[in-house]
């Protein structure tokens, strides 16, 4: 067997393999003999069909099977002798076939880049230091009450926090624009449901009022046509309602799982525990994200195209599943999926995922990190806790090898992140809970 490796790019290789003619003839002969023993041909007894008839009727399929078998058998040996490791599945082309020439094929594939983690100690991570305050607890209690509020009509001018029912029609340069009009819609003033200028314009008006308002759209508004533009709105207010919040009584406490007699302080204690758990989860997520982004920036990699393509397809299938597209179209083909969800939607994230996978894999290997069963059990307990019967969920996971492999991968990644943080510089920064849980709103404010 002759082997030749050709570099066709930074990470692309072409492996040329030539198989001696006698090896091909041996494989082909074995297959024809096997067929002759089993073939049923009219006019001949089974096992007594002349070889010339076998070759005439089954020669083409036997040759194809012989080629496939030799490719399957020789490809791993050729890779080992060439000293190359593909990053993904190869694309194989037949270059020559007997009887004119020996069987020759070329396997095109990507190889993994060389990964050097030589800048880990230069990483600087900011860890939020967040205290859950009494004000945070008060806000959550208020939010729980708001979730059960009732709206009651009032005969006064609208204020922030009220719900108004109104008609509106917007115009840009005297012309109506798409999405700029509606009738009898409910809007909670101050909740950010509408453009801020329009909400502010409604404040101070009573039911039955009709008025004009000048409304400027934000520079980052989703519609490019309206970004930063000043428009004119005609508005009619139909009703003004105020929120009637429920009392924190026994019924309210019971609906939130607070034991009878624990009172408001029992609810506050439960709220504090929930906020602290949410804080810890958010801190962990923010630190991990910052670490991963810095790890990527410090160690740029050339990425194997096949790995990126495979990750794009995985993300596309996630999106198809999440959007329930196959529920509406059971004949949805891969081609149609690619048309509906083109690769460019996922490419950036796919490249990041592949790069992080390579970097973390190298770190895990070099540091000899392993996922311990206690951590896997803890992760499984966390998953099971979200269900009505946790033990059934645990048993289901433990009976599914793929799900358990996923849990081991999560546990391994957690340990890798922890180990990376011991090598990086981590500084704490105090911040309010609101900024931690809603950074976008804090930045806008």
Task: List the defining traits of the structure above.
single chain, 445 residues, alpha+beta, five-stranded antiparallel β-sheet, four-stranded antiparallel β-sheet, 15 helices
Strand-helix topology:
Blueprint: E1 2-7, E2 12-19, H1 21-38, H2 51-82, E3 91-96, E4 103-110, E5 124-129, H3 134-147, E6 150-153, E7 163-172, E8 175-188, H4 196-202, E9 210-216, E10 230-244, H5 250-255, H6 263-298, H7 305-323, H8 325-328, H9 334-340, H10 347-367, H11 373-384, H12 390-398, H13 401-423, E11 425-430, H14 433-437, H15 439-444
Parallel strand pairs: 5-11
Antiparallel strand pairs: 1-2, 2-4, 3-4, 6-10, 7-8, 7-10, 9-10
Helix pairs in contact: 1-2, 3-6, 7-10, 11-12, 11-13
Uncertain segments: none
User: What percentage of amino acids are in beta strands?
Assistant: 15-25%
Cα radius of gyration in angstroms: 33 Å
- Ends: how far apart? 70 Å
Largest sheet: 5 strands, antiparallel
Number of strands: 11
Notes on the protein architecture:
- Helices cover 49% and strands 20% of the residues.
- It has helices spanning 21-38, 51-82, 134-147, 196-202, 250-255, 263-298, 305-323, 325-328, 334-340, 347-367, 373-384, 390-398, 401-423, 433-437, 439-444, and strands spanning 2-7, 12-19, 91-96, 103-110, 124-129, 150-153, 163-172, 175-188, 210-216, 230-244, 425-430.
